[in-house]
Amino acid sequence: MRKPIIAGNWKMNNTAAQGVELVNAIKPLVKDAQCDVVVCVPFTDIPAVSEAVKGSNVHLGAQNVHFAEKGAYTGEISAAMLKEFGVEYVIIGHSERRQYFGETDETVNKRMHAALAAGLIPIVCVGESLEERESGKTESVLDVQIREGLKGLDDVSKIVIAYEPVWAIGTGKTATAEQANETIAFIRKTCAEVFCPKCAGKVRIQYGGSMNAKNCKELMAMPEIDGGLIGGASLKAEDFSAIVHYDR
Ligand code: PGA
Q1: Mean pLDDT of the region 137-161
Q2: Domain 5-244 is of which CATH architecture?
Q3: For residues 76 and 101, is the Cβ–Cβ distance under 8 A?
Q4: Atom 7 in ligand 1: residue holding the nearest Cα
Q5: CA 208 to CA 184: how far, in whole Å?
Q6: Sign of CA dihedral 220, 213, 13, 31
Q7: Centroid of ligand 1 to alpha carbon of 11 (angstroms)
Q8: Is 94 a catalytic residue?
Q9: Quick one: pLDDT band at residue 142, thresholds 50, 70, 90?
Q10: Closest ligand 1 atom, residue 212 Cα
Q11: Predicted confidence band of residue 57 (pLDDT cuts 50, 70, 90)
Q12: Half-sphere exposure (Cβ direction) of 238: Cα atoms closer than 13 Å
């Protein structure tokens, strides 16, 4: 009942011209996809990629959004600025933002509410570090990220959650399918407690962290995993399309 969602996170890769080239290569390969297909591109790629995806089943996403409507926030981008170009999704609280740019559960929460208020669908990222996993803190870390990061949300199924163990991002080290499934089940259980069992049953929870054309089938076969947030493997049209067609 939950429609899978495969989203590419291009991170700081591809100029606008390169982005258009990539998305033009992706479009024909994914046109028959059974899942939702999203590309989350750098801000400067948005106008051109927005034109390029028109009339296709590829949806456009951004990688961050500021929480204020407008004002003195040098270097930031508002939700309305994204909406104007047809952006539908926005990644919030990616671990790289948390690690390098001081993002906290509090700012994640504010950005999520601003995105929703503007009609964007937030893809909120959560996940534990290697040290936290090895010291048995995974569940308590996720519990806090969910309770604080998603505070004030009336219905959790309005967002997408990306479970991304930090130790699996860009490292080639994937969580096993069982590990990912088990942890996502925990996230869903926590959502049922914090929000309601019905909306927890509806919220789409992706796995992210070195997901690729080879391991996607096994991960996506897991009952709790509703999609993927794909970094490295989303930068090649064939690899990304192989993940979109994980069921082939
Ligand atoms: P990766 O990145 O697929 O390159 O590990 C995933 C992400 O950071 O969203």
Answers
A1: 98
A2: Alpha-Beta Barrel (3.20)
A3: no
A4: 231
A5: 11
A6: negative
A7: 9
A8: yes
A9: very high
A10: 3
A11: very high
A12: 1
